[in-house]
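Session log. Operator J.P. requested a structure for one protein chain; no other inputs attached. Running the standard single-chain path with token output.
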Amino acid sequence: MATRKRSQAIPPASPLSVDERRAQGRALRDAVPRSAHADWAPPSGRHDPVELLQASNEGRMPLLVPIRFGRMSASPFAFYRGAAALMAADLAHTPTTGVRVQACGDAHLMNFGGFATPERHVIFDINDLDETLPAPWEWDLKRLAASVVIAAQFLRLSETEAARAARDMAREYRERMADYAAMRVLDVWYDRIDLQRYQDRSADPEVMDEVRKRMAERIAEAQRKNVPDHLYPKLVELQGEAHRIKDEPPLIFHPDETLAPDVHNGFAGAIAGYRESLPEHVRTLFDRFHFRDLAVKVVGVGSVGTFCSVGLFMAEENDPLFLQVKEARASVLEPYAGKSLHANHGQRVVVGQRLMQSASDVFLGWTVGTQGKHFYVRQLRDLKMSAVIEDWDFGLLRQYVRMCAHALARAHARTGDAALISGYAGSGPALDDAIADFAVAYSDQNRSDYRSFIKAIRQGRIEVQTDL
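Structure written below.
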């Protein structure tokens, strides 16, 4: 796929009818048959996976890079989570319809989950959009499908079950997209997956009962951990009269002047820039809190080594606000889909979240640091829940991937042309089968890249450090 100088904005709504746009989608099959999406073979001159991963460390904090690679070394599934740049380069060599949406850019299973809306409802949605950028819808679907197969392998499910789960995911996406194509625009925009009311009539009743039980337990746990009386003593201590985030190196520590030159002035410029990015009514709320401390906090897999931190703000002695500050770098899709329309990558992430999520954090904003690094800001945790898959069987995995497919289809329908995508996808299993076949083939590629990665570790080319 040819590189674009600037990422194209998603085109405005077409004046054509839904049926006419569906027909346009069907016509796209002549140029790009749905079966073409089944194929994966490494292109001639494919990048060396280890070299590309090492190149992605540019600008990261060197002392944290071994932790990043240590986390990726745990399994092929963990490796896949940290290797979005590898797959972005590979997806650029796959067939595309040319239909663009606001893409997640890293749509793997662990980047979906539950979180609280400003109205305090707990919803299920994409919860990590660091790589978001306008791009072909197929790229998200293929990355999600491959993660389903790799997760099934991690759970030691059979090859048949892995392929079936990926096929179920693609079918759910296709059927949900057909539903969204038939809905009113505002109904699509307002749609959300409410975890406390979630039901799937096509699911096995016993599996659905287990899903509801687990969701209720996770919501209760998240609510317990989210209250200030739990979070504050876990993260903060008093040093004299000063409220300080506890150091737990190497995963939580206070940066020095080298890492954060504006530490001496309390990050005043960055905080002021963040404040200006907030809507006026949220500024009024934010102004009730006052900055107290900031510490680097290592999070995730792919983000490790970038400047991610937690900021402590206080309104009163017993009234804290924890904000997560994450460095925003160029999307891994940018070399292949074009540069962002936004000069600040923090703004790119924030705009992408507001477009793709059915509800976003009230404190979502962006800023720039004194070294020119871009950041976006959101609340820390705020009832955020990620999947814990280690004890899942096929039934639980299948149900979860259907939820992910639903959320992805909803996000794409909000930002792209659902009728056009639905017309291309059709009403039969052709696309489902092709996406599942691609996912199985790409899982083999991921396993091969993982072996190369582990070999580089054993040869001393890569330094790793496991979490302490």
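Operator note: The chain has a mean pLDDT of 91.
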